Amino acid sequence: MPEDVVPAGTNQSPMSRQWRGLLREYADRLNITEATPIVTLGEGGTPLIAAPALSARTGANVFVKYEGMNPTGSFKDRGMTMAISKAVEHGAKAVICASTGNTSASAAAYAAHAGITSVVLIPAGKISMGKLSQAVAHNAEILQVEGNFDDCLEIARELAAYYPVHLVNSVNPDRIAGQKTAAFEVIEVLGDAPDFHFIPVGNAGNYTAYYRGYSEDLARGASTKLPRMFGFQAEGSAPLVRGEVVKNPETIASAIRIGNPASWNFAIEAHAGSNGYFGAISDANILEAQRILSAEVGIFVEPASAISVAGLLERSAAGEVPKGSKVVLTVTGHGLKDPQWALRRADGTDVSPRLVPIDITEIAGILGLQKVAE
Ligand SMILES: *Cc1c(COP(=O)(O)O)cnc(C)c1O
């Protein structure tokens, strides 16, 4: 067999180079050693996609960091590859997390890959079917708590403090360290940091992580500036905007239904350090932004993710985003996670595609097509 022919099923061909997951790709910039077992599903390396329709609407130069392309469909995989690898390095046999859905999907998948147990605490009746199905599929031990996310996190923290289970929520610094790699990727593609970075904010771990990633690249000379970090919360769940804990947060954007952000102080630091901004967006505007992104750009995201788009449109309309600015929007999770919102029109009625008979002439008529060939 010639040297350059490689058996099927391997990725060793000299012609192709598979992305190796972010722990290997960024080994020199993360706290991993020879002793760290690399638990990876190939996360990271997500596309940064030009969004001409959003550029046209705003006059800015807009790019979308599509984190729904990660293995379990959200950016949580960036933190989880790091957190589970470090947990295994430290001998953990079980991990625990509180979750609005995506953390549990990710923790369950990476724990399954590592051959350890995952326990997830979710607010009863509050997580989307897509996300729940992932945790079930990956064989997590799932408990629905009769409370909200903030209650779940408090219990998870206490359990991890007193029992042999390792906490993998974003209060675990390994999570934020893994997530900061998204900022490295943005700079590699653009050649420098953008002027603005728009991002959804729940526990504010990701807001913190991007700020740290951008800061590190600036410090090592890979970029010349920090982007202004613009974070958005849903109106009914906007503790950082209001400056106080929200007791009963409400929004259709379940991934950011957080009343007491775990990374509150870090977020304040990132906000101050980047001349940042926190804004609140209504559920109606979140859903409108979701439709714009899917129908005009071709990127389908879950509602929480669409708040980055809604935030850009709102700040642009307010005259706060100068024409020609380079803007990156992080969209955090895939639309298939929570598809019910796409199936509902703005007026609240459900979409049901028109029923037609098996009749070409009638279907062509309905579509308004004129015959061009006999
Ligand atoms: C977790 C999550 C968020 C919020 O991220 P934080 O780090 O908690 O601020 C936003 N969108 C999606 C889809 C998520 O899964």
Give an overview of the whole structure:
The chain has helices spanning 22-25, 52-58, 76-89, 102-114, 129-137, 149-162, 173-179, 181-190, 205-219, 239-242, 264-273, 283-297, 303-317, 360-367, and strands at residues 48-50, 61-66, 94-98, 117-123, 141-145, 166-167, 196-200, 228-234, 277-281, 326-331. 51% of the residues are buried. 39% of the residues lie in helices and 14% in strands. The chain is of the alpha/beta class and 374 residues long. The strands form 2 sheets. It has a 6-stranded mixed sheet, with helices on both faces. Strands 5-4-3-6 form a 4-stranded parallel sheet, sandwiched between helices. It contains 14 helices and 10 strands. Bound molecules: pyridoxal-5'-phosphate. Pyridoxal-5'-phosphate binds at residues 74, 76, 102, 170, 200-207, 255-256, 302, 304-305, 332-333.
Count of DSSP H/I helices? 14
Listed once per kind, the bound small molecules are: pyridoxal-5'-phosphate
What is the helix/strand order?
Answer: HEHEHEHEHEHEHHEHEHHEHHEH
Class by SSE composition = alpha/beta
- Percent of residues in helices comes to 25-40%
* Count of β-strands: 10
Strand content: 5-15%
Q: Whole-number radius of gyration? A: 22 Å
Q: What's the end-to-end separation, in Å?
A: 54 Å
Q: What overall geometry do the principal axes of the alpha carbons give?
A: globular
Overall pLDDT confidence: 95
Tell me the major beta sheet.
6 strands, mixed
Order of strands side by side in the largest beta sheet?
A: 1-2-10-7-8-9
Low-confidence stretches: 1-6
Question: Mind sketching the topology for me?
Answer:
Blueprint: H1 22-25, E1 48-50, H2 52-58, E2 61-66, H3 76-89, E3 94-98, H4 102-114, E4 117-123, H5 129-137, E5 141-145, H6 149-162, E6 166-167, H7 173-179, H8 181-190, E7 196-200, H9 205-219, E8 228-234, H10 239-242, H11 264-273, E9 277-281, H12 283-297, H13 303-317, E10 326-331, H14 360-367
Parallel strand pairs: 2-10, 3-4, 3-6, 4-5, 7-8, 7-10, 8-9
Antiparallel strand pairs: 1-2
The structure holds pyridoxal-5'-phosphate.
